[in-house]
């Protein structure tokens, strides 16, 4: 274990933001209710052993509501989807104003790793992380490859991040 990294229990929740899936399935809750076509949500739930899952549309109010709901029960919320450049993509715009501290390095490292994989197209990549009420929020793009990149960073650093957020030495 590294300096400033405590052996702590960390619980995760996953929010998939997708208007098209929401139109097909409605608001879904529960890790047992992940739609078959939500590969990114399923990967996150399985890899993080998430205890909560919610599917919401690309709507700021819905995203904020789901995030606050989930933060009552988990230490870390990971969203997937709604981070692109289209007018409908509002995940980061919904959540960034809520955080007390942004973890700028997350987006920087995410784009660096993406650049190594996809080249200059990584300029379009928006990934975000921040701290709210001693808990952590990560916003990932919706593609399966982006989720795998985000997981690589999250899984390698979450104990260190949580240790700092909780002030554990």
β-strand percent reads 15-25%
> How many DSSP H or I helices?
6
For the residues shown, what is the average pLDDT? 94
Level-2 CATH architecture? 3-Layer(aba) Sandwich
Name of the top-level CATH class: Alpha Beta
Kindly, what is the distance between the CA atoms of the first and last residues, rounded to a whole number of angstroms? 12 Å
**Tally of discrete structural domains:** 1
Helix vs. strand class = alpha/beta
Give the SSE order as H and E letters. Answer: EHEHEHEHEHEEH
Write down the overall geometry: globular
Main β-sheet, spatial strand arrangement: 2-3-1-4-7-6-5
- CATH-wise, what's the superfamily? MoaB/Mog-like domain
Task: Compile the SSE list and pairings.
Layout: E1 12-17, H1 19-25, E2 28-29, H2 39-48, E3 52-56, H3 60-71, E4 76-80, H4 91-95, E5 101-102, H5 104-118, E6 128-132, E7 135-140, H6 144-165
Parallel strand pairs: 1-3, 1-4, 4-7
Antiparallel strand pairs: 2-3, 5-6, 6-7
Helix pairs in contact: 2-6, 5-6
Report on the structure:
The protein has 169 residues and is an alpha/beta fold. The protein has a single domain (12-165), classed as Molybdenum Cofactor Biosythetic Enzyme, Chain A (3-Layer(aba) Sandwich), CATH 3.40.980. It contains 6 helices and 7 strands; from the N terminus they run βαβαβαβαβαββα. The chain has helices at 19-25, 39-48, 60-71, 91-95, 104-118, 144-165, and strands spanning 12-17, 28-29, 52-56, 76-80, 101-102, 128-132, 135-140. The protein has a 7-stranded mixed sheet, sandwiched between helices. Helix 5 (104-118) packs antiparallel against helix 6.
